[in-house]
Amino acid sequence: MSQTISEFTADLASAAPTPGGGSTAALVGALSSALGEMVGHIRQAKVTDPRLTELLAEMAISRTKMISLIEEDEKSFAAFTEVLQLPKQTEAEKSKRAAAMLQALIVAAEPPLKIAQTATKILTQLNEMKEYSSKSLLSDIGSGTALAEAALKASVLNVYENTRMMKDQAEADRLNQATDETLAAGLKISASLYPAMQKAARGEEV
Question: Own/partner pairs for 165-174, CB < 8 Å, 24+ apart?
Fold first, then answer.
């Protein structure tokens, strides 16, 4: 959390296993919420609706949630790599390692799923925030939408990568279903919101 942007991106570009796709998705998601919050804070001087203040508070929660998920994702992956080092010579060791592997994969799938769910929540919040925006700020709503969609799409891939390795198909199916539903819900919002904001940025009627 104390890293500079330069330090984080340098670590990301290195051969180190973390940070990776999940952490990056969470960071992008936090930026998407921040853009929506910026619009709301600018508009507070002219909008008296108390709902705007509530929405800003909700988006702040989403942003801080995404930030916390950067570290949560890295920790869960680190735990998974430790399991990979467990011995597997005897049948007992193989059995113990398989059980630990499944649990580690479940734990590792949780942060990216949370990132996807939070990204979908941010898309919902951005969709509402556009109602309080001025025309000149709708491009920021659109930019936030693009980033939230990117965070959503990137994070679900990390869920699928974990479920792909699970030997327990029922558990994999459970996580995949939750992920599929989250992805569909988020993309449904961005599919209408982003084109509308694109038109607004070009000065076209929305």
Answer: 165/101, 165/105, 166/102, 166/105, 166/106, 167/98, 167/101, 167/102, 168/102, 171/102, 171/106
HSE at residue 110, side-chain half, CA atoms within 13 A, is 12
Q: What's the CATH class of domain 17-201?
A: mainly alpha
Determine the Cα–Cα distance for residues 79 and 165; give it in Å rounded to an integer.
15
CA distance 60 to 33: 7
Q: Tokens 């001025």 appear where?
A: 134
Q: Residue 67 phi/psi, 5° resolution?
A: -60, -45
10-residue mean pLDDT series, the chain (206 residues): 91 92 97 98 96 98 98 92 92 94 96 98 98 97 98 98 96 98 98 98 91
Nearest to 22 by CA among 70, 88, 67, 91: 70
pTM given for the model: 0.95
Q: Is the peptide bond before 87 cis (omega within 30 degrees of 0)?
A: no
Name the nearest CA neighbour of 156 among 123, 121, 125, 110.
110
3-class secondary structure, 167: coil
Tell me which amino acid residue 141 is: I
What are the domain boundaries of the chain? 17-201
